[in-house]
Design the sequence.
């Protein structure tokens, strides 16, 4: 079992965030929503793959499985909250009198 340095983990995550924010800065709303949905889908698929790997008997650390599951859960909760806010905003706009 290998142990990775904390700095190495933070560096790759920081690069990915910088690239994602650069794409979002020049995108329209539908592209931002699409990127968000792709991120949630990727996190859910990644968590599913780690759970399947553990069920198949591969040696994966328990904390790695829990981290991937928690990341997927948090992204899904964020997506649901954004959806709720968008629906509330639409309802508020539809109630406005012109």
Sequence:
């Amino acid at each position: 079992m290998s142990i990775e340095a904390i700095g190495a983990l933070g560096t790759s995550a920081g690069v990915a965030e910088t690239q994602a924010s650069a794409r979002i800065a020049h995108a329209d709303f539908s592209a931002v929503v699409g990127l968000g949905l792709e991120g949630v889908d990727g996190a859910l698929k990644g968590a599913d793959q780690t759970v399947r790997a553990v069920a198949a008997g591969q040696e994966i650390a328990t904390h790695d499985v829990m981290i991937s599951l928690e990341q997927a859960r948090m992204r899904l909760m964020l997506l649901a909250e954004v959806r709720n806010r968008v629906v509330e905003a639409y309802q508020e706009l539809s109630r406005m009198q012109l």
Notes: The chain has a mean pLDDT of 84.
